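Crash report, auto-generated. Payload:
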Amino acid sequence: MDIETIADLGAGLRDKRFSSEEITTDLLGHIEKQAGLNSFITVTADEALSQARAADQRLASGDAGPLTGIPLAHKDIFCTAGIRTSCGSRMLDNFIPPYNATVISRLAEAGAVSLGKTNMDEFAMGSSNENSYYGPALNPWDHSRVPGGSSGGSAVAVSAGLVPGSTGTDTGGSIRQPAALCGISGLKPTYGRVSRLGMIAFASSLDQGGPLARTAEDCAILLSAMAGFDAADSTSAERDSEDFTAQLNADLSGLRIGIPAEYFGEGLDPQIASIVQEAIKDYESRGATLVDISLPHSELSVAAYYVIAPAEASTNLSRFDGVRYGHRCDNPQDLLDLYTRTREEGFGAEVKRRILVGTYALSAGYYDAYYRKAQQIRRLIKQDFVQAFEQVDVIMGPTTPHTAWKLGEKSDDPVAMYLEDIFTLSVNLAGLPAMSIPAGFSEGLPVGLQLIGNYFAESKLLNVAHQFQQHTDWHRQQPASSEG
Amino acid sequence: MSVEQAEIEKIAHLARVRIAESEIADVTQRISGILDLVDQMQAVDTSGVEPMANPLDATARLRADEVTETNQREAFQAIAPETEAGLYLVPKVIE
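Recovered output after restart:
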């Protein structure tokens, strides 16, 4: 079957060519058939069918929006009332939230149907999905390879045609990197655009929710429903949501594209470099101007990120103590034993490492050398971008230095894994919006083009991405495993 | 910069994470590798640079001091490992 987009499915639903119940049933069947991809942690078939029937009534009454009746899947980091939300961790394997994340309730109000919760690296810490307590999701293009992470299950589900769109979160590249490795589109919005309420916190000054889908247009449809000020999130940007589809067809002539020298240096797979350069030349041939820019502090982004993110994680994850919810060890001898053994058993190796690194960076005597220093470098990284955006409208480069690697290839070497995020981390440190869109294939594996925009310029980013997708079909390619 | 095993043990205690005796050497080695990576920062002169805690340099919003939530103790405690009479139970702290 041909994988359809949210835009196409929405039109079909509103024209009564099929019902939401029909497509929901169909996709639930695909999910079951493709269970080997391990893209879902929890499938909520009964809830999905009842939401689909409700959506069909709404469609029948003419009260339907662009997402009414559209099946989606949510990263298992978003709290869903009454539905287990594990965050990929043994710590929350038994956690049934008493409330919905704002992202979940907004999409539900828009009439979207949730088919379930997708696989992810534990507490969103990872770039391969191998840190999931439930085992890794598999890359649909080659089942022996990783899908990327941490929103790996969400990317796999879209890539394999199990859902037309999904939600993810991006703290250091966790939407863009799996989107690139699985050959789909993904958008990390400006920090504060999408509410963090009910999105289990990893690094609060970096975390941002966003959509994954086949096309930029579908990302725009999803973001329009997900974004907007939320008084219940203390860092929510005081901006209303927008119709992010409104500017998709704006003319790109005169567009100034910044090409950062630092994104094409050592360590980048030469095939990815040439595919990305070709995509950029395509923009140039359609009237864009290329501007050489420099982001001189970007090579420090890995170092600064791996202080700031673990420091914030060690603080956020202190709440998992075996007292109020989640895992508790058996027969605790005393309170200290309850805490330390619960956390030993509940957290996986990478999460424990980051808690330890963060605790170290924040501990007495080290704070200035690590956390304060990293926050200063963070400002230098932001200033590089601010200066660049005085000359350009959008910055382009590769999303990742390599295509999807083999399962197990880097799982023993945390530093090698961290370096895979070299092109995405600085965007989170600066708080900017960015996308990854499919730009070609290298030895049968998808390659992502990264587009970085100025603060709150998501409409421009989506416009630039959509125009590329009007005359390329990389985003329409589908892995063999999605057929049948 | 490498870190001593004893230091990792101290940090693990502060973080309330037990690390098995058999794993401590391995954990120490990997964390040393991560700290070596982040030590690149020390080569950069950041004197006079204001640390950045929030990418938009935003500060926390204030709100009126009004009761907005309702009591949902039963719903919240329904997912707790152990409760009694509306209280969370933990091992005895004072003998």
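Post-recovery validation: The first strand of chain A starts at residue 40 and ends at 43.
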